[in-house]
Automatic annotation (TrEMBL):
Name used for this protein in its record: Histidine phosphatase family protein
GO terms, molecular function: phosphatase activity
InterPro entries: HD/PDEase_dom, HD_domain, His_Pase_superF_clade-1, His_PPase_superfam, PGM_Phosphatase
Protein origin, superkingdom: Bacteria
SMART domains attached to this UniProt entry: HDc (SM00471), PGAM (SM00855)
Limits of the HD/PDEase domain: 217-325
Native species: Candidatus Lachnoclostridium pullistercoris
PANTHER family, A to Z: BROAD-SPECIFICITY PHOSPHATASE YOR283W-RELATED (PTHR48100), HISTIDINE PHOSPHATASE FAMILY PROTEIN-RELATED (PTHR48100:SF1)
Length: 371
């Protein structure tokens, strides 16, 4: 079996902030895009990833050069380029809708399968990319790293996963992410758990703040998340000192972002989807579980259970007891299913707290007194 890594180029200074059709227009990396390429370089150096091929467009070529540290290692292949925007290339979507109302509406109903005049659909671009991969596999040995674009890559992954092309944009392929495909016996396959994943498990504080701004997290929610992160991070530090394999940064940043979708219905699930879309798979799992742990998770001390418990021990930005927190929130529950969910959360929180106290003791679970 051979592996094929599809690397989406780093972020660009997008024309019109996404209000224009930009496919093959040659736009260079932004400063943030170059930073993403440097993170990819750390991933690339971890082990021998195989030969590197790139789309000739500068956003891919620059990503590949930074990633490898030597542009001479990178072979350009025009078949890896972005889908062809045809007559829509470079035009605003407002203009396109006015000039092609019927086709625009048709494409809106099945985005992945409908091509602009003189251009390619996502699926056509994916088929071209698939042919390019098959050709490269036949000409080389070992694994391959292909620096390419989201349109063509989404088209290919859509086909491999039997994804509904009407919802092709739900395939998570943020800039600077990696999707791992498998090639065996002349066949390509994909696993969603390896699609659109960032090399770094955690985004870092600066990126967390950017995500807060991007998703318009209210100030009071930011203060709550920060307080939850401080508490969960403290527990993670103390558990690590006690010899438990807890990832402190993962715990802290999951708590720091756990309410990123707080203003939306079912905000835990929505927050998980946001972070999965950004390429942070493990972070997304923790955030999605901060309202309800998987059965049995409450009897283990993990990053998931620490964030779950810390959220229940903070009201606003103040630390409170579980009894206080759940007594205050019980009044919001009227429907029987809401009461059951509330009681289940309380039971799970008490179970996690018991596990934590069994390792750290009651005093060890409390923040150190000032002074």
């Amino acid at each position: 079996m051979r592996l094929v890594y599809l690397v989406r180029h780093g972020e660009t200074a997008a024309k019109g902030n996404g209000s224009f059709c930009v496919c093959r227009e040659d736009i260079p990396l932004s400063r943030r895009g170059r930073k993403q390429a440097r993170v990819l370089a750390e991933w690339y150096r971890e082990k021998d990833r195989g030969r590197v091929f790139s789309s000739p467009l500068s956003r891919c070529a620059e990503t590949a050069a930074i990633m490898t540290g030597d542009k001479k290692q990178v072979r350009m292949d025009p078949e890896l380029t972005e889908i062809n925007g045809g007559d829509w290339e470079g035009r605003s979507f407002e203009e396109i809708r006015a000039c092609y109302p019927d086709l625009y509406e048709q494409r809106g109903r099945c985005l992945g399968a409908v091509a602009p005049p003189g251009g390619e659909s996502f699926l056509q671009g994916g088929a071209r990319l698939r042919s390019a991969i098959e050709k490269l596999l036949s000409q080389t040995e070992g694994d391959l790293v292909l620096v390419t674009h989201s349109g063509a890559a989404r088209g290919l992954i859509c086909m491999l996963l039997n994804w509904d092309p009407a919802h092709i944009m739900d395939i998570p392929l943020a800039c600077g992410t990696v999707s791992r495909l498998q090639a065996e016996a002349g066949s390509l396959s994909a696993d969603f758990s390896h699609v659109g994943i960032r090399p770094a498990v955690c985004p870092g504080r600066a990126e967390c703040f950017r995500l807060w701004d991007r998703f318009q997290v209210p100030q009071l929610v930011r203060e709550h998340q920060q307080a939850v992160a401080e508490l969960a991070g403290m527990w993670a530090d103390r558990l690590a000192e006690a010899g438990l394999p807890i990832d402190r940064e993962l715990t802290y940043e999951a708590a720091f972002l756990h309410d990123i979708a707080r203003t939306k219905p079912d905000h835990a699930t929505q927050g998980g989807r946001i972070l999965r879309g950004e390429g942070y798979d493990r972070l997304a799992q923790i955030v999605a579980a901060h309202h309800r742990l998987s059965p049995g998770e409450e009897s283990r001390l993990t990053e998931d259970s620490l964030v779950f418990l810390a959220d229940k021990c903070v009201e606003g930005s103040q630390m409170v007891s579980l009894e206080e927190r759940f007594r205050a929130s019980m009044g919001k529950c009227s429907a029987p299913e809401a009461v059951w969910s509330h009681q289940n959360q309380y039971r799970q929180a008490e179970a996690v707290a018991h596990c934590l106290e069994s390792v750290l003791g009651k005093e060890g679970c409390r923040p150190a007194a000032d002074g």
